[in-house]
Write a structure and sequence with these properties.
Elements: E1 11-17, E2 20-26, H1 36-60, H2 66-81
Antiparallel strand pairs: 1-2
Length: about 80
């Protein structure tokens, strides 16, 4: 089975400039506008997802590993040395 996309048909506009007929081919384009409210809901949804991942990592002891503790310590030292 082959599914072909919908291609817009060109619109030919006949404009007269200085007694000369000029034909322009205009392509219609679809557009999508996402409301501010929808964007805020999406952001809140992502924050809740991130928070649940963090909670799972805390319960599993992920943040207590030497690798993570060393990274945190290195970043704290870097921050303190930059001031």
């Amino acid at each position: 089975m082959e599914i072909k996309g919908i291609t817009p048909k060109p619109i030919i506009v006949d404009e007269t400039k200085n007694n000369k007929s000029v034909k322009k081919e205009i392509q219609k384009k679809d557009s999508l506008e996402i409301s501010k409210e929808a964007k805020e809901l999406q952001q809140k949804s992502e924050q809740v997802k991130d928070l649940s991942i963090i909670k799972e990592r805390i319960k599993s002891g992920f943040y207590n590993t030497d690798e993570v503790l060393n990274k945190v310590a290195d970043r704290i030292l870097k921050e303190l040395n930059s001031k």
